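Re: the request from the purification team.
They wanted to know what the chain is likely to look like in 3D before they choose a buffer screen. I agreed to run a prediction and write the result into the notebook, where they can find it.
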Amino acid sequence: MQLQTNSTYLRSAKRWLGAAAAVSVLGISAPALAQDQQQLVQAAQTTFQDFLRDPDMTWFRANVGRARAVLIAPEIVKAGWIFGGSGGRAVLYAKSGTKWSGPAFYNIGAASVGFQAGLSVSQTITLVMTEKGLNSLLANSVKLGGDASVAAGPVGAGAASDITTDFVAFSRSKGLYGGLNLEGSVISPANDWNNTYYGKTVLPPDIVVRGDARNPQGEALAADIAKASTAR
C-alpha cells in the first residue's frame, strides 16, 4: 500500500484512531518515525567522542569503565538574567557485565535564582558510579544533590582520583557562564520519547536492565561506550 495514494485515509485514521494506529495500518513501524529521538542519539554519540578526545578529560577516560551507567546530554541550555534555569534531554546507557544497554531517554531540568546573566550551551556527560545512583534514575525522578550525591568531574592532568559520589558530572561549555553545576537538577524519564523510539510502552528498567526493548539504531553508541570502558 503506497503512502501517497492513501493520504486521505491517513488523515482520517489519525483523527479517529490516533497516530499510532494509523502508522500501524500503513505498515510503518513506530521506530522508523522516531527521527527526533535518533537525532538525539547521534548527537550523544558525537558528544561522547568529543569527551574522549578532549585532553582535559583524563579522569573521565580513566574511569568510564568503572561506571554503572552513562547519561549523555548533547545540549544543556542555561540562560537567565537574575532568574535562571537550565534544561535539556539526555540518553542513558547502563552496563551489565561487559554489555551496555540503551538508550533510555531522560529530561534534565533545574531552576536557580542569583546574579547571573548570559547564555551557555553545555555538552554534559554524567557517570553513574554506584548502584544507588542507577536505581535512583530508574525511579520516577531523581534530584542531584538531594536524592543522590553528585560531584563535578575533575579535569586536567592533575585531577584527583578519590571521588566517592553517586554521580560525577562533566561538562564542556561555551558562553558567559563558563561551566555548569548540575547540583539541584531534576532528572526524569522521557516516557513519551521512549515509547516512540521503541514502538511500544516501555520504562527505563525495560530498556537498560531487562533488555525487553531494543532499537538497532542505538547500538553504535553502545559499542563506543563499551570500547571506551575497556580501554587502557
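For the purification team: Confidence is low (pLDDT under 50) at residues 1-30.
Please add any questions underneath this entry.
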